[in-house]
Amino acid sequence: MLMRTPWQDLRYGARMLVKHPSFTLIAVLTLALGIGATTTIFSAIQNILLDPYPFTDVERLVMIQIHDNSTSRPGGRNFFQTAEFLDYQEQNHVFEEVIGGMMGNDVLYDTGNGVEQFNGGYVTPNTFRFLGLPAQVGRVLLPDDAKPDAPPVFVMSHKLWVRRFNEDPGIVGKTFVLNGTPTTLVGIMPVNFTKLAADIWMARAIRRDNAQSARDFWMFQAKLKRGVTIQQAQADIDLIARRLVNVYPDNYPKNFSVVIVSWIDNHVRSFRTTLYTIGAAVALLLLIACSNVANMLLARATTREKEFAIRAALGASRWRLVGQLLTESLLLALAGALVGCLFAYFGIRGLVALIPEGLIPGEVQIRLNLPVLLFSLGTAVITAVIFGLAPALQTVRKDLVEPLKDSGKGASGGFRRGRLRKVLVVAEVALSLVLLSGAGLLMRNFVRLQQVDLGFTPQNILVGRLPFARGQYTTAAEKQRFYSQLLERLHALPGVVTATETSSLPPYGGIRSDIDIIGKTHSEKWRAQFQLVSEGYFPTLQLRLLQGRLLSEREVYGARKVAVVNQALVRQFFGAENPIGQMVKLSLLENLRPPDEPLQDPLFEIIGVVADAKNQGIQESVYPELFVPYTVTGAFNRGILVRTSTLPLALLENVRREIWAVDRNIALTGTGTLEDFLRQGSYAEPRLSLVLLSVFAGVGLALVALGVFSVIAYTVARQTHEIGIRMALGAASANVVRMVLRTGLQLVGAGVALGMLASFAVTRVLSNQLVGISPRDPLALGAALLVVVLAGLAACYFPARRAARVDPLIALRYE
User: Fold this and answer.
1) Category of 772 on φ-ψ map: left (φ > 0), alpha (ψ -120 to 50) or beta
2) Which one of 352-366, 414-428, 499-513, 531-545 scores highest in mean pLDDT?
3) CA 233 remoteness from chain centre
4) What region, left, alpha or beta, does residue 554 occupy, with left being phi > 0 and alpha being psi -120 to 50 degrees?
5) Above 50 in pLDDT, residue 77?
6) Total Cβ atoms within 10 A of residue 256
7) Element (H, E) at 218
């Protein structure tokens, strides 16, 4: 009998839901929207923040960072030269094992018909054992592969295997000519292995006694000993760093701190706030959905008062009736969870498409899995209790006489027990206003970002990198010979306005160096960044000349030591003094290590000043910068910028042909338009937050409109008899409309007042995502307020119009 009662409740509840398909469909879809959105974002949180890596002992994996305390920017240097790396490895007492990696290495693959560029990652021999992830095909790299007499081998990423080799397992064991050396492919890694963002990996030992190895810089990554905390590790490494600052003084800022950061925190730091913000937004959306369904259940329960009064009179206990209503709520919630998981499946696919490349670790795979499905089930149960308990307790009260006397739509029912429904509507309006306020702020922020003055014109610029093989074009004369021919050919192409060589991609920085200005003394290091450019750099980016002159072709080809500087450099180091003719020393060019050619006496005469252009991203202030002829040194990687009069990508193959006409062994990589790089590097994350929060705010607003409409429509239906009497006694239709609108707008007004107070408090969490926008921006909050009021007014209008059309004679017979 005890087992039969829940089963009976389930069958009866299912019959009641099927009996009212419209109610059931709307309630299930409302819940599915809330649960689906929540499940989508929880999937992202679980896969990105809680369990992003497929490696063993991920919770113990950490990195060392040297943070410059003079800057507010998070993070710090996490690459260490070979000897410094080994010192940390040998002197620490907190790490169980250490691995190193070098990223961003250009590996040129000779296909026999030309050259292709792969992103190469060099790793220490113990890396794959440390990570504990086997190869998908073949084997991983082993410690023996890094021995001096070992034949050269490599493993390939799954992405490159699919993109370039059509998933052919037969390529394992074959020999590839990489950087001129025959190298055997021994394995293909799984899809969720993307360490160092590399296409291929090769093993390299870290040795103090090797001249080539001494020039390398390695990312330091380690596994904490069991029982060691990050705080303990940080204290241990800080002691080592204080000793090493005297050994490697050029590697440490004057005021620095050592930071031990977990792998997960390091890779998702910038995205964590965004994800938690969106998580809070979907929680609000779920509350709105639950409030809406609770309102629907309250309205429906009111019409069932007589049914439950009869059942109670026949002996059903109070808690037996509560259990019946909660069972129906649970059925609705489970149905909503099932449909919500379907929504989440498509929502996850859309979310993955929206997340900018490089924002989260490549190992992350956002998908529905067991923890996510359990979360959805738990959410369904909790929501069933939230939106089912209040209506159940409201309905099964002890007074059995009144329901037996009342009809299904009595005259007095309109206001008598509508207080809880109105409270729920007020809460929905308030929550919706919070969501819309956040979306409005992000919209204003995104517009402001796009209006930031970059200082240059990014439209119609084709971008490309030209990696050279090791030992190829290493000197300044060799690079000049190559680029002088290439730039001449590019200028001759139809559709090309101008072109330039460049050492970095604006607006994402240059080459940092200590500087000195002849005749000026200073106690602290002065630092600036410089670009190696041709004379075409300034017209290509359309930089504005403010003083003096720009680089000339003769000065570039003659490798003259002259420089054009930006306003930030003048402000910081010269003040009101005229910089033209002053001499600046770039210490880095003097301290280059072989095989690069150190520049003797690297003093550059300032010949011109250009307007500031963004060079640390679009949100950071402009850094002091110099532009010097690319012909003064053969060091550093190079690329090209090509301004076109047509669509830049339409000229890509023509540009590639001109490069191969100069040298068939040069690969063109990293291609795209400068606008695309800006969209991906600077606008993609703000756009993601804006799109997601706007979608959730829009859904929330629709649910609020539905909630207001349902309450007012239900109130009108319950007051049909009263309205008929008023109209029979001479009340005009306009008076009835005003009465209904006043009732609805009072609810909306109360919700708006509460929502504005909540918005002032809640939107402050968005402050670190806003650029030049206050969390209390009046335009954003005013727009959100207007939208909510208009939606509420529209939701009230249709029931009001229906009330005005009531026929008094029919209404008086309504009982």
Assistant:
1) left
2) 531-545
3) 30
4) alpha
5) yes
6) 20
7) strand 217-224
Q: 770 to each of 472, 616, 625, how far by Cα in Å? A: 46, 17, 27
pLDDT above 90: percentage of residues in the chain: 40
CB-CB contact of 311 with 726 (8 Å):
no
Q: Are 445 and 771 in contact (CB under 8 A)?
A: yes
Judged by DSSP in three states, 223 sits in: strand
662 is written with which tokens?
């100069």
Beta bridge pairs of residue 640? 464, 501
Whether the Cβ atoms of residue 36 and residue 350 lie closer than 8 Å to each other:
no
Mean pLDDT of the chain: 85
Handedness of CA 609, 611, 612, 613 (dihedral sign): negative
pLDDT band at 84 (very low <50, low <70, confident <90, very high): very high
Tell me what pLDDT residue 398 has.
47
Distance CA 590, CA 208 (A): 24
What's the CA gap between 808 and 787, in Å, rounded? Answer: 35
Structure tokens at 212: 């080539």
The 3-state DSSP class for residue 93 equals: coil
Contact 155, 141 (CB under 8 A): yes
Q: Please tell me the distance from the alpha carbon of residue 678 to that of residue 652, in angstroms, as a whole number.
A: 19
| pLDDT, position 308 | 65
- pLDDT at res. 463: 96
Q: Is the pLDDT of residue 469 over 80?
A: no
71: helix, strand or coil? coil
Burial of 719 (0-12, 13-18, 19+ CB in 10 A): buried
> Taking a C-beta distance cutoff of 8 angstroms, is the pair 46, 367 a contact?
no
Query: Of 397-406, 569-578, 592-601, which range is least confident?
Result: 397-406
The pTM of this model reads 0.78
